[in-house]
Design a protein that fits this description.
Helices cover 74% and strands 0% of the residues. The protein has helices spanning 2-5, 10-26, 30-33, 41-60, 63-87, 92-119, 122-132, 143-157, 161-166.
């Protein structure tokens, strides 16, 4: 009886799997080769955040169950960031301050991407991606990535919740 007390809930396992899918997708070399994402730690963070954001936005459309899995996905994302900071040698006193900044970054990115995604506005999305991922004010720097992100949003939206929780359908990365 007690063994069930310590087993992760199904939503936690699903959120863990979704996070792993987001990380695997964000690590695909084609982002750096075909889409010219700079191979820097901040750009990698942006790709992780982008993929988690896409999943969170999709889960939000699924009512209470989606919200529960989405909250657990967010918690796992934050925990992974905390672990990464500690592995990089950031001290305990500085972790809380950095985590607050990273949390604000996630919400800021979601806000910056959500409106253009909802409107299908590739130019506004490209501008936000150029600024955040490429650290550039040149909108064309984010154009190819914006096309990928719009495709990802559409592919994720076309999946049932069960299929999404099993394996998110990310689009192919093309230049």
């Amino acid at each position: 009886m007690l063994k069930h007390l310590f087993q992760p809930r199904p939503q936690s396992r699903q959120a863990q799997a979704l996070y792993a899918h987001a990380v695997d997708q964000a690590r695909r070399p084609a982002f750096y080769t075909a889409l010219a994402v700079p191979d820097r730690i901040d750009a990698r963070f942006e790709l992780y955040t982008l993929h988690v954001s896409l999943l969170l936005m999709r889960l939000r459309a699924e009512g209470e169950r989606g919200a529960d899995v989405g909250q657990r996905l967010f918690d796992i994302y934050v925990s992974a960031l905390d672990d990464s900071l500690r592995e990089l040698g950031v001290g305990d006193l500085a972790v809380a301050k950095k985590m607050r900044k990273l949390g604000e970054a996630l919400y800021g990115r979601m806000k910056a991407y959500e409106a253009p995604l909802e409107a299908g506005d590739a130019d506004a999305l490209a501008a936000a991606l150029a600024r955040n991922v490429h650290a550039s004010e040149d909108v064309t720097a984010g154009g190819a990535l914006a096309a990928y992100v719009l495709g990802a949003r559409n592919r994720l939206a076309s999946q049932t919740l069960e299929d999404l929780l099993t394996a998110p359908a990310w689009p192919e990365i093309a230049k």
